[in-house]
Amino acid sequence: MTCPHCETPIEALVARGPSDHVLSPCGCRVTETTARDLAGGADRGRGVVADGGTEAEASLDSARARRKLKLRFEAACDVMVTTEQMVAEEVFACIEAYLDWMQTNLAQDGGQTDPQRFVAWMETADRNPANYPAPRAAHLVEHLDEALIHGVEDDGLQPAVVVEVLDEWVEDSKQEFIERHNVSGDFFEDFEEVDA
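Predicted structure:
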């Protein structure tokens, strides 16, 4: 049986409460569904309905999860600035290199469509600081990896969405930095070529 929303084969129905159910591995939200409905199937007039709840509920849940993920990115950067003494330009350059690397590799591996595969890929990646041109960048990458994994596992976001949220957060944060510090719009361009 496949998910009626994204057509991914269903491996499990995860109940997070009496009316909150998620299909695995795709993560699509289903409502008013029971294990009996899955077993009965459409041929008995029952089956999975991946309607995501009401649009307002789904939109609110997604907005909260996205906001929570952006706060995790913010915390990761704060840690790097305070404990590793990285300057904002260096942090953003590393994050943009990470984001480019992430988008390239996920496109090749097809990982953006499967949450379990995404998490497994993230957890098995080599994060040894000795393998990085800038070892403290490895610590930032570890924090970002952790935030992305939490976004998928804990908050129910799809892998493509967590990467999109990181991209949005970077652009918003750079703009906020430019406005707060009254620097020119091309301030970060000199730092974008840093290889994290």
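Summary: The chain has two domains: 1-53, 61-191.
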